[in-house]
């Protein structure tokens, strides 16, 4: 027994040292894996950043080109003599047409008598005004019966929503008739 205790007492520090080295090695591998992941993510980020900057530069270049093209085409169009003629002719025609349209309005001023018409509002159907009655709920139910009850209740709520939508449509129709 003493020999065994001596053997254990001499080998225990060695076993603990080996165990600590094993733990250190595992942690070192984890740190290396995390470092590699970090490097990969940094590379991906820098690549995406470069792509974004290139896209942004291309958009800015396209905007500059379109601005230059717009200003160049605008000055060419305004400076051309043919376009000045095409602008003046329609303006003269439009002023003549405006005068011709105003003449009948001046001669058409006669006294008119307002005639009021009574409007009949659409009647709301009785099923739309009826209450939505809930189904009878039993005191004890199984899970299947509870599922069926939930389905019936959802169907009733859906029907009430359809009724309310129909009432809103009738009210919109009434408002439209009032404005006309």
Structure keywords:
Peptidase, flat, mainly alpha, single chain, LysC-like
Tell me the series of helices and strands, N- to C-terminal: HHHH
Based on DSSP secondary structure assignment, what is the total number of beta strands? Answer: 0
Amount of beta strand: under 5%
Rg value: 44 Å
Largest sheet: none
Q: Assign a percent range to the helix content.
A: over 70%
Say what oligomer this is.
single chain
Structural class: mainly alpha
Tally of structural domains: 2
- The count of helical stretches stands at 4
Tell me, briefly, the overall form.
flat
Poorly predicted sequence stretches spanning 5 or more consecutive residues: none
Structure commentary:
- It is flat, with a radius of gyration of 44 Å.
- It contains 4 helices and no strands.
- The chain starts with a helix and ends with a helix.
- The protein has 180 residues and is mostly helical.
- It is 81% helix and 0% strand.
- The chain has 2 domains: 102 residues; 54 residues, no CATH class.
- The model has no long low-confidence stretch (mean pLDDT 76).
Helices and strands, with pairings:
Blueprint: H1 2-79, H2 81-107, H3 126-129, H4 143-179
InterPro entries: LysC-like
Organism: Arsenophonus endosymbiont of Trialeurodes vaporariorum
Pfam family, one: LysC
């Amino acid at each position: 027994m003493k020999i065994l205790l001596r053997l254990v007492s001499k080998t225990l520090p060695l076993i603990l040292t080996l165990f600590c080295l094993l733990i250190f090695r595992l942690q070192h591998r984890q740190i290396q894996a995390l470092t590699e992941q970090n490097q990969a993510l940094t590379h991906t980020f820098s690549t995406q950043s470069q792509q974004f900057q290139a896209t942004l530069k291309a958009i800015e270049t396209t905007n500059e080109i379109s601005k230059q093209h717009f200003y160049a085409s605008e000055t060419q169009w305004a400076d051309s003599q043919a376009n000045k003629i095409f602008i003046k002719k329609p303006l003269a025609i439009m002023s003549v047409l405006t005068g011709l349209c105003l003449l009948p309005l001046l001669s058409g001023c006669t006294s008119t008598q307002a005639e009021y018409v009574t409007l009949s509002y659409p009647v709301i159907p009785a099923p739309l005004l009826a209450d939505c009655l809930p189904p009878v709920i039993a005191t004890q139910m199984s899970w299947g019966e509870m599922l069926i009850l939930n389905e019936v209740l959802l169907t009733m709520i859906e029907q009430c929503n359809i009724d309310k939508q129909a009432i809103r449509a009738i009210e919109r129709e009434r408002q439209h008739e009032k404005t006309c």
